[in-house]
User: What shape does this take?
Amino acid sequence: MHMLYDSEAFAVVHILANAPAEGETAPAGPQMPRHGFEIVDKRSGKEVYLDGSWAELFQQQINAWQNDMPSQEEVEDTLEGYATLAQMPVVMH
Assistant: This one.
């Protein structure tokens, strides 16, 4: 799990579900790589988990941000769009 972004309004975490833990080796045989992004809207207390094609689209957005260096306002405007998908209340595990 890697924190990618944290502000007063949003938090974004990259989750590598199939990544081996530190010191472990990857299991033998073919595996479908799985990863996703959790976007937390701190204002509403809700989160959305993006995986599959949504995660691919979001990864493309992150790559574009790395090249363009957007302002915080531009990043948060984009996250606001994804936050409209958020239905799950944030729960402590």
Remarks:
- Helices lie at 52-68, 72-83.
- The chain has one domain: 2-18+33-89.
